[in-house]
Design brief:
D-Maltodextrin-Binding Protein, domain 2; three-stranded antiparallel sheet; about 450 residues; 2 domains
Amino acid sequence: MPDMHRRRTTRRGIALAAGLALTLAACAGQGSAGDDEGSTGGDGPTKLVLWHGMTGPDGPAVQQIIDDFNASQDEVVVEPNVMPWDVLYQKVLTSLSSDDGPQVVAMSASNVPQYASKGALAPLDDFYADTYMDTSVLPDAATDAAIFDGTNYGVPLNIAPMMLYWNKDLFSAAGLDPEQPPATWDEFASMAEKLTVDENGDGKPEQYAAAFADHTTVPIWQMLLWGTGGGVVSDDATTAIVNSPESLEALEFWVEQVRDKQASPIGLSGADADKLFQTGKAAMEIVGPWMTTGFDEAGLNYGLAAPPAGPDAQVTLGDVVTFTVNAKADAAQQDAAKTFFAYWNSVESQQTWADGSGFPPTRTDIPAEDLQNPYSAVFGDPELLGSAKVYLAGVPNSGTITDSIFYPALQRVLNGDGDLTEVFTQANADIQAAIDKG
């Protein structure tokens, strides 16, 4: 079991919420891809088809809770259909619009406005009237993440901040203290010079300081902009700020690290970044708790810390995946879904989830000493959670902003195709147009 280093973070009281169009790695076990139409007829149980993207090491814990729920009663049967997140997001709007789509879809809470604004999701405010469970035990940050235009459209599946993983053996080999990860951007830059190894001088390092994905991933680059007081969109979700002086300062720093100093490869997806770190070819990665199992199984000697603090702030990305209900689901199916959501967020289920996945529980009333998986306590550290911030919560076109505007602009700059300020000034105009379109 790796030693988990926790550096104190500056509590900023920023609500933990959702980020990105992600590659949240997820669970094993491919669900049936057959007919997704649920059932309510006859004397049999109500069938709920649940789409989710948990295709990685946290997958078995999801399946265990579903199996436990199905075995606990005979009125509702949940049938999971598991697919990669990018495939899910490509299919979900069309599927929700059809008459035979899934009744329940798990998604990043940042994507909720995109579907809620089109009338594809059922409101879930009545779940929070405590008919199904005492929702006061759920963190406000997790429940508020799925609010759009004053209505709540989601119930938390998970909640997690991102942390810095660092390979202690690679730190030692570079002459660095294996117990001291970079605490600031400047420390990162200094350490990265020693951790980037190009043995034959061909311009293609055999080892990189870090693995920073620049597409199909959780929004790590966007998170880095917060360190200088910048960002992609203002906190009130009304104004594009990606070309503000603060944002450009952050972009200039990190583009220099990656493009000019080769601290990370260019063109990595989230899965690519995970593999690079897992195979010992990158010394650091910023990612969530879903990778702890895979990294442990790979035998990595690693530590965990808050991401390096920027000049202005210590901030990390907070991610919430939320359960949503198809607006086409009938009353019986919607009731069955809420019954399942309550079971998922029960004490017993959250202990199963935390112990099996390394995520912190979605409940605030489960003491750390009641959890068997030490990672759950690390990622659930109150000060770490207190430094976590929303990414594009409440912005209807968050997917367009992230995948069609921000990442293409970033990739252009990383590949030397255009001046950074000019590229992101155009991106800012495009983001503002997407916000105004609503």
